[in-house]
Amino acid sequence: MIRLVLVDDEPMVCAHLTTILEQADDITVVGSAHDGAEAVEVVLRERPDLVLTDLRMPGVDGLTAIERIAAMVSAPPVVALTTFDADEYVLRALQLGAAGFLVKTTPPQDLVGLVRVAADGHTVLSPEAARRLVHASTGHLDRSARARERITGLTDREVEVLRCLGRGMSNADVGTALHLSEATVKTYVSRMLVKLDCTNRTQAGLLAVEAGL
């Protein structure tokens, strides 16, 4: 059972998403919050498997909530909910530790599947969306240069794995592409996250896109 917390300043949005998601027999909404401060409290109390949060909220916004949740011990993945498919706000959310983002116009039939993917620890962010985010942001060239500098300490094999993460591939897909076991891929990913000082595979994948991999 996937235990989920919803965060949006519009109660009707939370109610609508709850109705959609709880139609699945493996998803239950264990709490909701209407600003970032309340979101942190609910997450600490409920210890959910996944958090879906709006970014633009009065008071404590979603960015602050993402940062505070990501700093928790055994933090759950946090996926940003947004009306916009690519902007600086979303990019900042990913840099702070969000495990991906979903636009609020995601069709209901797709939303349940994407929640399952995110709760399973995978990125909910297409390569195309990642590229739009990078190019929509200011300082793209400077960020690209910094990203290329950060990956210089990786081995050739680690760079290959990172390139796959930048394409949004799962560990199983990476293993198939590079002829590695899934356990070996997990080891490479864990090692890279430490070397690159990335919170999660989403940040590493975004770094791959920024570096031009």
From TrEMBL:
<dbReference type="InterPro" id="IPR011006">
    <property type="entry name" value="CheY-like_superfamily"/>
</dbReference>
<protein>
    <submittedName>
        <fullName>Response regulator transcription factor</fullName>
    </submittedName>
</protein>
<feature type="domain" description="HTH luxR-type">
    <location>
        <begin position="147"/>
        <end position="212"/>
    </location>
</feature>
<dbReference type="InterPro" id="IPR016032">
    <property type="entry name" value="Sig_transdc_resp-reg_C-effctor"/>
</dbReference>
<keyword id="KW-0805">Transcription regulation</keyword>
<feature type="modified residue" description="4-aspartylphosphate">
    <location>
        <position position="54"/>
    </location>
</feature>
<dbReference type="InterPro" id="IPR000792">
    <property type="entry name" value="Tscrpt_reg_LuxR_C"/>
</dbReference>
<dbReference type="Pfam" id="PF00196">
    <property type="entry name" value="GerE"/>
</dbReference>
<feature type="domain" description="Response regulatory">
    <location>
        <begin position="3"/>
        <end position="119"/>
    </location>
</feature>
<keyword id="KW-0238">DNA-binding</keyword>
<dbReference type="InterPro" id="IPR058245">
    <property type="entry name" value="NreC/VraR/RcsB-like_REC"/>
</dbReference>
<keyword id="KW-0804">Transcription</keyword>
<dbReference type="Pfam" id="PF00072">
    <property type="entry name" value="Response_reg"/>
</dbReference>
<dbReference type="InterPro" id="IPR001789">
    <property type="entry name" value="Sig_transdc_resp-reg_receiver"/>
</dbReference>
<dbReference type="InterPro" id="IPR039420">
    <property type="entry name" value="WalR-like"/>
</dbReference>
<keyword id="KW-0597">Phosphoprotein</keyword>
